Every structure is written in C-alpha cells, then in structure tokens.
C-alpha cells in the first residue's frame, strides 16, 4: 500500500493543475498494466492528507476543483507573496526599458516607428513587454498595411509606481544608471511627433 501511496503522491506533486482520482487511476493502471481499484487510491490520498496536516510540513494536499494539488499552507502566504512580488518586479533589460520608454512617450506607436527610433529590431522587446502586461495593443494605424499600435497599460503605472502618465519624468531628467536610456533615444523622445502635428492641421 505504501508503494501505491508513493506513486499517488508523486502524481499529485508533479501535476500543475488539480489532478482527479480518475486521472490518477488511469496513469497507475497503465503503468502497472492492471486495474487499480478506485478505493485503494482514495485510501492512499486520505493517508497523504493526514500526513501533510503535520506542522512539520509547510505545504499540504488540498482538494480543489474536483481534484488534488500540493499547495503551501496559508500561514506562509505573506512570505510567498513578497517573493512573487519581487520576482514580478525584476529589472527590465536595457532593450526592454528603452522600448517601453519610447512607447510611453510616443504612444500610440507602431513597431516600425519604434524600430526607426531605436535603430534595431524590436520584436523580442515588444513580446517581453506584452508578456509582462506593461504594454498593450491599442488598435491599428490608418496607414498602409494597418500596422498594430502599441501603448502602455495600467500595469505599466503600477510597475513604475506612478499615478498617471503626467508623472513620467522628462527624458532630459533621466539620471545615469545601470539601465540608462540611450542619449540619442532620449533626444528623439523630446522631438515633437510630426505625424500627430500634421494630422491635427
């Protein structure tokens, strides 16, 4: 029975989502090439639930969404929350920082316009910023090919700790840091957007 329990424990541990008893049963039946009674699996799970109730463990098995999953215990929520917050706020690369700065000051802006300012391909930087939800697609330009327009998201302001876009520093005010924006790009950020000026006439 301990042998079966160990396999049940391993299956629950490696599952990224709550795993159902029927899925555990199918895995074990295929591995052992024999029918595994559902009752045996349920008994193994009950023993595991009792085992992880001990304060010796910082995590346990929880019955959620009709399945079972290993989760950390509520007592450790605060420390884990800090870790996740720190991980989410890892420093952006120079390329991503330059890209999001251009988007912030020139939005809405197309990828072609971004690449014209930066002088390099921006596909990777844009995708990373989209993954982090710091920028979003705002629509399509009315120019040839209808390219996508990018702008900053609400999460952008949360990430940089500002209340509104008016709180952004002017490019001339950027201090020299490890993530310093390229001086040439900073200069271009201060240049009026002639496309918008022409369309306003």
Task: Encode the helix/strand succession as letters.
Answer: HHHEEHHEHHEEHHH
How much β-strand is present in the residues? 5-15%
Structural class: alpha+beta
Distance between the termini: 81 Å
Note the quaternary state here. single chain
Protein name: SMC-Scp complex subunit ScpB
InterPro entries: ScpB_csome_segregation (IPR005234), WH-like_DNA-bd_sf (IPR036388), WH_DNA-bd_sf (IPR036390)
Keywords: Cell cycle, Cell division, Chromosome partition, Cytoplasm
Task: Please give a structural write-up.
The protein is of the alpha+beta class and 201 residues long. Helices cover 51% and strands 12% of the residues. It starts with a helix and ends with a helix. Mean pLDDT is 85; it is low at 175-179 and 194-201.
């Amino acid at each position: 029975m301990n042998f079966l329990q160990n396999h049940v424990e391993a299956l629950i541990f490696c599952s990224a989502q709550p795993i159902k008893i029927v899925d555990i049963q199918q895995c074990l039946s295929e591995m052992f090439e024999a029918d595994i009674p559902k009752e045996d699996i349920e008994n193994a799970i009950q023993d595991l639930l009792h085992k992880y109730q001990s304060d010796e463990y910082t995590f346990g098995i929880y019955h959620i969404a009709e399945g079972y999953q290993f989760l950390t215990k509520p007592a450790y929520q605060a420390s884990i929350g800090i870790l996740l917050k720190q991980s989410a706020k890892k420093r952006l690369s120079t390329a991503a920082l330059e890209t999001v700065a251009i988007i912030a000051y020139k939005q809405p802006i197309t990828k072609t316009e971004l690449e014209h300012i930066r002088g390099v391909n921006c596909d990777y930087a844009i995708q990373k910023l989209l993954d982090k939800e710091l920028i979003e697609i705002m629509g399509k330009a009315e120019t040839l090919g209808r390219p996508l327009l990018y702008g900053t998201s609400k999460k952008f302001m949360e990430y940089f700790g500002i209340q509104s876009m008016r709180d952004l520093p002017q490019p001339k005010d950027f201090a020299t840091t490890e993530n310093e924006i390229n001086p040439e790009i900073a200069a271009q950020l201060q240049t009026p957007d002639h496309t918008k000026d022409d369309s306003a006439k």
